[in-house]
Amino acid sequence: MTDPTQHTPTSTPENAAPDVSRLTDPAFLVHGDPDVTGHLLDRASSAGELLVAAVYRASTHLHRDADSAAGRNLLALDAARYGDRELAARIAAVPVVRETGGWGVAWATGSPIDARLRQTFTGHTGWVTAVAIMDMNGRPHIVTGADNTVRIWDPATGVQVGEPLTGHDGLVWSVATVVMNGRPYIVTGADDMTVRIWDPATGDQVGEPLTGHDGPVWSMTTVDMNGRPHIVTVTDSDNKPVRIWDPTTGVQVGEPLTGHDGPVWSVTTMVMNGRPHIVTGADDMTVRIWDPATGEQVGRPLTSHTGAVNAVATVVMNGRPHIVTGSDDMTVRIWDPATGEQVGKPLTGHGGVWSVATVDMNGRPHIVTGGRDKTVRIWDPTTGEQVGGELVFPAPVTTLAAIATKSFIVGFGHDIALLTHL
């Protein structure tokens, strides 16, 4: 039997006319020689051939060095960016030797793509730097920050909901969601050193901007205090970079949390010993845990990274929360917050790690990471091993967020994509 993962024949008999129809064969696109494929792209004429040519060219600079699995992932992603989900599905179904863990692209935006060619929806005109998930009308929705706007997306269709939220005077670096008076609201932080709250139902800003930081607001999260959600924000300022806010009053709560020696890039929350705690990662290569009720640091700093800690998240292992961190030192590390010790070996393979999240896969939580090397990788936290091959993107992966069981959002370049476990 012929091995379906072997390359489709790529040579053309001498003096024979190039068979342009091969462009519509997904197996040829995945396994074909890039030189031969590129030769055919210029001869595309039908609507289907022209679409395939545009899809292939979207990441043509990456195809030559990509193996069949990475190339298939790129082609499926770019087909989704052009709005052709049927083509994306056919490409994703092509067998390859090294599978990527069974993840497929449900949809993707195509912001930089020529409007005359794409069939998909566009939005941001700058790099997507933040993503959060919000329940709206009984369903999860995606909230993204980029350029100086915030946008809401329907995950079922990839269509933008309503008009962009505008008001920040600078790039939006962070987004979160908070429930007040039984309704969801969006919280954003930006280059203009302000934090703003928005009503997604109306698109209007709620109250005055929260001010006090003297640097861009790089990351944010929410933490429960006294039975109500509060906002935690961090900046690259050396002057009191971690602050807690009451969203109902717009007033800062307590004194800023101090201890990091330099800018703070990332923040998350976790429950430890039945109480909420704040976790921060910073330029000083440390991770710190804080008690929001007292503003005091809990235990000693977590140290092992040799580069800035760009991303923090939590994952449940053996029934207890653990901290996951990603760094400029090209490693992902898992920590036991109860002991302050690193668990297992560093997870390696990335370039600089810019984003970390967790997602359910096969009934167990897994770690998802993305970074400067334009890849997303899935890890089994119990073994420390990568699950499947890396997923390749045409731009660095700036942000990640789990949206539901077996699904997560990837922010890369100007675009976002929904990936699901097949």
Q: Your description of this structure?
A:
The protein has 422 residues and is mostly beta strands. It folds into two domains: 20-98, no CATH class; 128-421, Methylamine Dehydrogenase, Chain H. The protein contains six helices and 32 strands. The strands form seven sheets. Strands 2, 3, 4, 5 and 6 form a five-stranded antiparallel β-sheet that branches. Strands 15, 16, 17, 18 and 19 form a five-stranded antiparallel β-sheet that branches. Strands 20, 21, 22, 23 and 24 form a five-stranded antiparallel β-sheet that branches. It is globular and about 70 Å long. Mean pLDDT is 89; it is low at 1-17 and 114-121.
In a few lines, what is going on in this structure?
Helices cover 12% and strands 43% of the residues.
List descriptors.
five-stranded antiparallel beta sheet; 422 residues; 2 domains; Methylamine Dehydrogenase, Chain H; mainly beta; 43% strand; single chain; 6 helices; globular
